[in-house]
Amino acid sequence: MCYFDYRLYKRVKKIIFILKIAIPAVIIGYLFLYAFTPQSFTYKKPQLITISKGSSLKEIVYKLYAQKLVNNPYLFYLIGFISGYSRYIQAGTYYVSINRSPASIYYEFVNGKVARAKVVIPPGLNIFDIAQVLSKDKITAKKLFLKKCFDRKFLLSIKIDAKSAEGFLYPDTYVFKINSKPQNIIKRMVSEFFIKTKNLKPTYKDLIIASLIIKEADENDKNSAGFISSVIHNRLRINMPLDIDSSSIYALNLTMYKNYLKTGDRYKPIFHMKQIYLKAKSPYNTYMNYGLPPTPIANPDIEAIKAAIHQAKTKYLYYISTKKGKTIFSDSLAGQIKNIDKYLK
Rounded to two decimals, what is the model's pTM? Predict the structure, then answer.
């Protein structure tokens, strides 16, 4: 004879009911805790990760796991799948750290909070120097940036009718995306140039002179730029060679860049090789040629451009830089020799 234990039945039914609620609640609670808890409490430096357009969630999670930025790829994937984040992840380069929670990482991906870097471009850097700075901060590739700076078709599209972007990349503090397209960086800097010079409307000749001024002037002397400008204008007026070292050095940078494109050998800007640049046959060699170099040799700020347009009224033809960095001017060769004996010997 079989007896039905109703009380046991109700107890089992109640337990099953509780389990049906408890198990999903525990799983959801665990996932919730995992989603909003840092994956590691031991500090590790954030790493850059690039998500390509069209990447699947599996590919993204695998990439993160391969770089040890995710401690549990299955749970990380599950969070992205259940939440629906995977449908809204934006392509780009991001800083990711295992010290952050999965939810915060997905938040960056979904909202396109791509990695950015603050970069300072001081007055007087040329395009080769700027390429070095941008490459060091992983903002863009050096070679690609320089190629765009010499891309005639691209330059014309941004209203620059010149051989290169030299002179038009305005020195300032910028915030750029990591792994930016070089044309976007150039456009931004050129746009800043046009904004800053809107009222001045400098000619290309003004920019060339301003670039010489910014390389030669004493940054600690407010009058230096205007006086350097007067020396340049005075020499041009009497057809006297400018004898400016920085212009001749620029020619070597151009030569090394051309060789770099052909051979792929490591490129480094030249800063001081006097025994070479004084003998170099180049239109930038202002010891061997009369007049201005064919292009700007650096990127001047607004003060240098103003000085190029509105030079000081002097008779100066010479100047030297003392050991302390001060610029001394003279209007005759005799005065120049006297200053050399006084300040440099």
Answer: 0.84
State the angle between helix axes of 302-309 and 204-216 in degrees (0 to 180), rounded to the nearest 10: 120
Report yes or no: 285 and 247 within 8 Å, Cβ to Cβ: yes
Hey, what amino acid is at 31? L
Q: Is 105 left (phi over 0), alpha (psi -120 to 50) or beta?
A: alpha
- Tell me, yes or no, whether 144 lies in a domain: yes
Helical H segments across the chain, by residue range: 6-35, 57-66, 73-83, 102-110, 127-136, 142-149, 152-157, 182-196, 204-216, 224-237, 245-263, 274-277, 302-309, 333-343
**Is 96 found in the same domain as 187?**
no
The answer to whether 100 and 120 are in contact (CB under 8 A) is: no
Q: Which two tokens stand for residue 297?
A: 């040799």
Give the span between the Cα atoms of 116 and 119, in whole angstroms: 10
Pair 294, 333 in one domain: yes
Structure tokens of 236?
Answer: 């041009």
197: tokens are 């010079």
C-alpha closest to that of 295 among 340, 239, 257, 247: 247
Query: Is 233 within a domain?
Result: yes
List alpha helices for 44-196, DSSP H: 57-66, 73-83, 102-110, 127-136, 142-149, 152-157, 182-196
**Cβ contacts of 215 within 8 Å, gap of 6 or more:** 124, 244, 246, 247, 297, 298
- Domain identity same for 147 and 62: no
In a domain, 2, yes or no: no
> Which residue segment(s) compose the domain that 286 sits in?
204-343
**pLDDT mean for each 10 residues of the chain (345 residues):** 58 64 66 79 89 93 93 91 89 93 93 94 96 94 94 96 96 96 97 96 96 90 90 96 90 79 59 60 90 96 96 93 87 92 85
CB 310 within 8 A of CB 304: no
